[in-house]
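User: My collaborator sent over this chain with a note saying "see what the structure looks like." That's all I know about it. Can you take a look?
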Amino acid sequence: MGAAGDEKAAAAAGGAAAEGEAAVDSKDLQQQSKALDKLTDHVEDRQLDSSRVQSAMAALASSKEADWNAMRLREKELAAVKINPTDVEIIANELELDKKIAERTLREHKGDAVAAVRFLLQ
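Assistant: Without extra context I'll predict from the sequence alone. Here is the result:
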């Protein structure tokens, strides 16, 4: 009976060890599951507040409109500047530039050819 008793004791010990491993495995699985949930829940699904979205869109639209108006005003100011067509020709030929660039630069420098050339040579 000694050998049979040893087998039962070993089987009982093995069963206890298997239960202990199952308990450890289930705890480990629970910890892994919680860690995975934290990773996947890191990016929350949030509903956007429609009023905040509308106000942000309105701010963008008004900013774009203000930029457009400022650009139109600047173009009107530049168009009003009197420039000498001879200066445009000289700058375009001597610096090998397009006439539109030479004219624009002259207008930006209020028709001052020297300032325009200095700017272009920088």
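A starting point for your reply to your collaborator: The mean pLDDT is 80.
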